[in-house]
Request: fold
Amino acid sequence: MSFTAPLALYILLAVYFFFSLALSFIQVITLGSLEGRRAAKAVGHGRQPSMTAIIPCRNEADAISACIDSILAQSYDDLEVVVVDGWSEDGTWEKLQAYGSRIRAVREGERPAGWTGKNWGAYTGYLQARGEYLLFTDADMVFGDGVIGRAVETLRGEGCDMLSLGPSIRMATFWERAVLPLFAQFVLLLFQPQLMNRDIAGWSMANGQFMLMPRGAYEKAGTHSAISSIIVEDIALAGAFRAAGMKVRFYWAGSSLETRMYSSLGEISRGMVRDIQGGLGKGYGFYIFDLAYLAVSFLSPLAMMAYAWQVQQALLIAVAVISLILVMLRMLTFQIGTGSPAIYVLIYPVPAAAYMCMVAAAFWRAIRGMGVEWKGREYGMPPPG
Reply:
């Protein structure tokens, strides 16, 4: 039997979908968790080092109290909280004042030219910090009891210079449950943290929601001043650590950390467009590649199925069905991993198409020379990603 062109193409795509599923599954099972690494690597180091948790924030009145309360409740011997407010307009500053001397609340000074708001806020917090260790975190994080102490144990036991953790994501709306597992999948597949965890080549990744490090390591990497203009600052800071010859680790924190990143499709779209445009900048070819990758990886099985059904060839239909199942299993891996209902895998083309629209929106902004917009501020276009 000789292969027709469509059949050969379908089989090639089915093989690709199989290996994509395998890569996704291996990625999830080899990444590791905070508790697993702590159990394997924790060693005695005497007293706990003094710690400063630094929270740069702007317009976070709805989330900031839960974050601060959960940090203050930590069973950690010497822990201070520094919150840097970026001149919020929603009552955030007033909520900070209610904590009195339990935290150190400061407002940003005049932001130097070329600095992003978050980088300037983080750097301002560092200048205020007294701790031997620094923890940079976001205002929408909620910390489980003892997680900071366990993170310090893991960092010391691993002998690394930065420990970043991925939280569980609380999802309450349809779009959160549909889109955020796809976003998590792309982050892991793009940055390959398990390679960084094995110190392979120059792979680097961190999550700005939880980045723990000794003060000396942070200063050796150049602080946030070394990445002052970069929008996706967590990846850049991890890269600065790696470039300075230091070790970075990224693990899942499970239920020890929780966040609700976005609460509506509009918030998701603005956040994703910011990250995509901030990461790719004027690298127009990367946008095109991303769109093509999304189309091939997630939407092509549907086109395969439609064509196979139209020509009524049993073998083509079988290959198309297998390809579709493989893609759905890949999606299921991340639906389960992020705590989103498994049933959402049945409508995976919807979040895939939504994500493509967000990539296209970021591309359109880049083509028009529009800056990256976030939290009511606009920054100039970054260089190509």
Q: What stands out?
A: The mean pLDDT is 88. The two ends are 46 Å apart (CA to CA).
